[in-house]
């Protein structure tokens, strides 16, 4: 591939990553919107038994979010590996592998709640305590959520460190991501030790700065792309190593 072709490819990758971040964020918010009435219901399983499609839509949005975010490290790997292959691979493992599996498992668990809710209603209150316990575990899963948060943050720290190191995006933007990953990680640890609950006000406050940073970065990638001088420098080194002559205008 010529230098110009490589530059165009990286520009397309930047747009794809930005769009994937936006898709992941929008579908994540929609998943919360659809699941909130279920979570706040006095008896979630009874609510699900009569509003199964609501849960199915929430699970679908959760799956789309997980798959969209899992594609980001796949798209970024060919670029990041030129600057730090070990961390680029770690980013793929944590964000593209472990996190995606966790989202898929959560989606399956939510879908299982639909038939479980029907069984719960048929069993009646005296015989449904075990079913209610399983339902709460599948729906809330704070332990799974806290582990997922930690996995997400470890992948994010790798990602933003390579971005900061490489200057592919402005350093203030990658530094913002590095800093905001710390309180996000703290929210997962606090939930793991039952100091806070998932979706609590404190939990949301700790996660919000990184969510804002991701949207700013997504828009930057869509409209600005990666730093062309950094890309050009890397492409030039590869071309010289391969004996490719620079294109003339």
What descriptive keywords fit this protein?
249 residues; mainly alpha; 0% strand; elongated
Biggest sheet layout: none
Name the helicity range: over 70%
**Number of separate helices:** 9
Q: What is the string of helix and strand elements? A: HHHHHHHHH
Share in β-strands: under 5%
How many domain units? Answer: 1
Class based on secondary structure composition and strand pairing? mainly alpha
| Low-confidence regions | 238-244
Give the termini separation. Answer: 17 Å
Q: How many strand units?
A: 0
Evaluate the radius of gyration. Answer: 21 Å
| Outline | elongated
Account of the 3D structure:
- The protein is mainly α and 249 residues long.
- The chain has one domain.
- The protein has 9 helices and no strands.
- It has helices at residues 3-39, 44-50, 52-80, 85-123, 129-139, 142-166, 171-192, 201-223, 228-242.
- Helix 3 (52-80) runs antiparallel to helix 4 (85-123) and helix 7 packs antiparallel against helix 8 (201-223).
- It is elongated, with a radius of gyration of 21 Å.
- Mean pLDDT is 86; it is low at 238-244.
